[in-house]
Amino acid sequence: MKFFLYLCRMKQYQTLILATFWALMPVALHASEQDDEAFLDTTYKSLQDAVLPRLKWKRSDIASVPKFGGYVIGSYKFSNQAGQHGGEGFDVRLVRVYVDGTIMNDFKYRLQVELNGTPHIKDAFVSWSHWKELEVKVGEFKRCFTYENPYNPWDVGMGDYSQLTKKLSGFGDRVGETSMGGRDLGLQVQGDLFKSRRDGHRQLHYAIAVSNGQGINRKDANKRKDVMGSLQWLPLKDLSLGVFGWRGSWTSPEGISVERNRVSVGVKYEGTENHWSARAEYAHSRGHKASDFVAATEELPAYWKGGSKADAWYATVGIPVWRWIKCYVKYDAYRDYATKQSMHTICSLSANLQPHKNLMLQLQYNYHKDNAAADRHYHQLWAQTYFRF
User: What is the pTM of this model?
Assistant: First the structure.
């Protein structure tokens, strides 16, 4: 027994002994009813005194109490575009629930499920984050491409993400991928470096990810991995300038593989004291759309009927009007083939009323100019309700 307790005091054996001890506790307690209860109680107390204080653990630190929550977004959308029959009308845009927590302090987990439409998993990952300088995440999570992609729908400011985010980061991607919410399956390493002496904020954020490239809830289809990364410099606590890169591919259900090679640059400001917001980004993409592939015939070899380039940019500003009213203005442009003929611009004005942190009402006007559509100029009115629990 003394030899066993000696091992408990040696650092290289502490974690192994602690895990073994908790695993064998039910067996020990059952044996105590039949054998020597006093001996087992003494052993239990000795282990607690020898191991737990040295690891600075309490029983409650093994795993936190799971946090459950969710949010719902309902909408009404009107459009005067020809052929749209007045727009989408009433809809339940999103219903999501989640659970997250920590295990042994350093491991964080999250599971998020979308319930409207066909229920499916959105996020399912665990991350190790002992240091701010290094975090390792594995599972299903947001791609580290563009500033706006990681934003929660509550925090975007407008009633929807920009075309740049939707078309070039996995929200119904231009290559043909259905909406993946900007997520993929893979592994990511990230961290925050260089603590400021002035106010303590971290001045450099980095992220590098390797993923399947097929989106959420899907295995790799072409045995090639996507690689993406971001580097963000924060000269001030509320100001960030970033560059993002993505090299990868996607394979359609029909077996058509297309490249996804992209780069994006942007700037972001989120005022913690004055509550002003501003974001601007530009992204460029190289890679065909799967729908543009024309199979070979007896007369002609296979070819692509469309161009391989696309780009997009947007700028949005959030203006606090009152303590629970904030307005946003946005200019949003996307060129499906990097040409004027394929350009779609949206000018938007949104008013967000948030009388409570868990309740928001939003009114938005959009003016569209779509050069590729039969009805090039049209208007939209949106009204959305957000609540969370």
Answer: 0.83
